[in-house]
Protein: Cytochrome c oxidase accessory protein CcoG
Organism: Shewanella eurypsychrophilus
Amino acid sequence: MSKTNNLADSDLLSTNSKRDEFSIKTNTHESIAIKQIPSRSPNTQPNARNTKIHIREQKGFFQRIRTGLNSLLVVLFFLMPLIQYQGRQAVLFDLEEQNFFFFGTTLWPQDFTLLAWILITAAFLLFFITTFLGRVWCGYLCPQTAWTFIFVWVENKIEGNRNKRRTLDKAPWNKNKIIKRVSKHLIWGIIALFTGCGFIAYFVPAQTVYPQIFSVNASFLLTAWVWFFAICTYVNASLMREMVCLHLCPYARFQSSMFDANTITVAYDATRGESRGPRKRKQETNLGDCVDCNLCVDVCPTGIDIRNGLQYECINCGACVDACNQTMDKFGYQKNLIGYRSDNDLAGNKNAPLKSLKFSGYGICILIMLAVISADIYLKKDIQLNVIRDRMNLYRETLDDKIENSFTLKIRNKTQEKKIYQINITGDMDYRLNGSRFVTVEAGEQVTHPITVVIDSTFYATGMGTDSHAGHANISFKIVDISLTSNQVSQESNFFTP
C-alpha cells in the first residue's frame, strides 16, 4: 500500500514540476491559469435522473408485440370481473364470505394451500423465464409498464411529441398550456378511477362497485378503497413512472442473480458499433456502425444509454432495438446493432452450452410444483365433513335393549350448486341410523346435522362385533353426493359401548 502511495505522490510531484516549468518558460512574470473541467462519467445519461424523462414515441416490430400484450392485459383486467358464470361473477375474491370463486370452482380458506402453490409456481416460472429471456416480464407484461405507456400515449395525443412536450414544460403558463395540462390530468384521473373500480371489482361484485361509485352512493369503506387504488395508479403511472422501476420494484434489484452468460437481454454490440460518431448517409468512414443519433436513449422509458452496457434499470422493452434498427435501415447498415442477445453471443462463443444448470433447476422445480398442484386438485373434495361426538354422554342404554351414541355432523357444500347428500355408516357392528339419511345443503353453505347411531344390545352381548368388549368400536361416516356418487368424503369416529 505504501509503495502505491509513493508512486502516486511521485507522479503528482512530477506533474506539478512540469506544470511549473511550462509556466516559467511561457512567461517569467505570469503563470497560465488552469481551469478545472470535471470529467464526464461514462454512465452519465443525457436524460439526467433528476429531470423528467420525455419518452420519444417509437414504432417497430417489438413495440407492436409490447402494445398487443399490454392491450390484452388491460382488456382482461377490466373484463374478467364482468363475466357471469352460473348466475354469479365468474372471478371473485369474496372477503365477506371468505371464499374465492373462479368460474365453476370455489376455494375456501382451507383450500388456500392450493392458491399458495399456484403463486409459488408462478414465481418460479418468472425466474425460469428471466434466466432465459431476462426482464421480458417488465417490458411486455408488467402492469406498471402497461399503465405508464397508456398515460404516455394520452400525454402524446394532448401535448404533442417529445420536443413539443419539452417546449411546453419551459413555456410560461398561458391559456393554451393550462387547457392542455388540465385536459391531460383529467383524462389521467378518469383512467385511474376506472382502474381503482376494476381492481376492487375482484373483491366486491362489479355490479355493485361501478353503479355505486359513479352514482356517489357507495359506502365509505368501498369509496375509500376505490379512491386509494385510483390515487396509487395516478401517482405511479403519471408522476413516478420510471422511478417505480428504479427505486421501488424489488425485482429490478435481484434480477441479476438469475442472469448468466446464456441469458438473452437487450445488448449493444460494441465491437461492431465503436468508434461511434455522426456521418452522412453513404459516406465512407472508418467509424463503427453507431452513428451516435441518441435515439436509443430518447425512446428508453427509464432514460438509460444501453451502449454503456447492461444496467439494472433496463426493462427489456425493445424500444431501443426498434429505434436502432430504424436508423440502420436509413444508413444501409446491418440490423441489430442493438438487439436481443446473450453474453456468449457477443463473445462469439458458439461452443457454449445452450442452457445452464440454473435454467434446468428452475425448470425441474416448476415440474415438481405442477405435479403437486395436480395432485392437490385431484384430491380436492367438494364436500367438507366434520364429525363431533356428544361429549356429555358416551353412550345410552334404552328400555328396548339398544345402545345409542349421538353425533353432530357439520357438512359444508363447497360447490356453487344446491346438493342433496346421503349419509352412510359402516363399521364392525350392525349400525343403524335413526332419522333421515338425506340432508340438503345450499350452495356454499354449511349445515349442522345431529344424528343418533344405534345397535342392538344383543349383538353387543354375544360379542359378534370386533373388539366389542373393549368399550368402543370403529365407525365410519360417509357423505355421498347423490347426483355424482364419485363426489364423496368420509371420516372415522368411535362408537362407545358398556
